[in-house]
Amino acid sequence: MRKTRIMVLVLLAFALVGTVSAFGPIRFSYSGDLVVTYISETAGYNNEFGIEKPEHINLGFTHGTIPALPETAYRNIGRCSAHEPVILYIKSPPEGGSVTYYSNQTSGDGFDHAMVTTLGDGSYTVGFEDVFGARANTAFPGDGDYDDVVLNVTCIRYAAPPFEAEPSPDFPIIALPAGFLCGIIGSMLYVRRTRE
């Protein structure tokens, strides 16, 4: 009975740690200049895109009279502060009015409309889905491809003055699964030892 409870607790912890939402926080561990690059779009709508936080800035539109061009980097648009969130948005005009989707939260339809991916260079790619509500697959909004507007956001680090301490490194991602595996092995050894 005791072994069963321990294994259930371990599996529950794994389920909670392994659950990841499509949207996510965009945070940098240092301060610097914010740069957003418009990567691509596959949308039929003329979506507005931009930054909501640290300061609301409309960067452009996917269609219209002056559409954004892929690989356009938007510079001199503000700064990113250490550990403060950066929130991107798109404003999409679907049937019945426009809806704004943010990179850090679900929408009014209960779906994640942003897929945030951390890249190896410390930047983030954010892919948006611009259709409100589910269509063919009820697990995702729209067609669930998250490529209606794709943006990259990075923070160009300020040069540190000589007196400023070097920022502490981010918590290594590999430590979470390694710690989890150590916990499982430790639980199994504990159960085995208590049986003997």
Overall description:
This protein has helices at residues 2-18, 175-195; strands at residues 32-40, 48-53, 57-61, 72-74, 79-80, 87-92, 99-102, 114-118, 124-128, 149-157. It is of the alpha+beta class and 196 residues long. The protein has a domain at 32-157: Jelly Rolls. Helix 1 packs antiparallel against helix 2. It is flat, with a radius of gyration of 21 Å.
Poorly predicted parts: 3-21
What gyration radius follows from the Cα positions, in whole Å? Answer: 21 Å
- Work out the helix count: 2
The assigned CATH architecture of the domain at 32-157 is: Sandwich
What is the N-to-C succession of helices and strands?
HEEEEEEEEEEH
Q: Indicate the structural class.
A: alpha+beta
List keywords for this structure.
196 residues, alpha+beta, Jelly Rolls, six-stranded antiparallel beta sheet, four-stranded antiparallel beta sheet, 2 helices, 10 strands, 28% strand, disordered N terminus
What's the layout of helices and strands?
Blueprint: H1 2-18, E1 32-40, E2 48-53, E3 57-61, E4 72-74, E5 79-80, E6 87-92, E7 99-102, E8 114-118, E9 124-128, E10 149-157, H2 175-195
Antiparallel strand pairs: 1-4, 1-5, 1-10, 2-3, 2-6, 6-7, 8-9, 9-10
Helix pairs in contact: 1-2
Outline of the structure:
With 196 residues, this protein is α+β, with helices and mostly antiparallel strands. The protein has two helices and ten strands, in the order H-E-E-E-E-E-E-E-E-E-E-H.
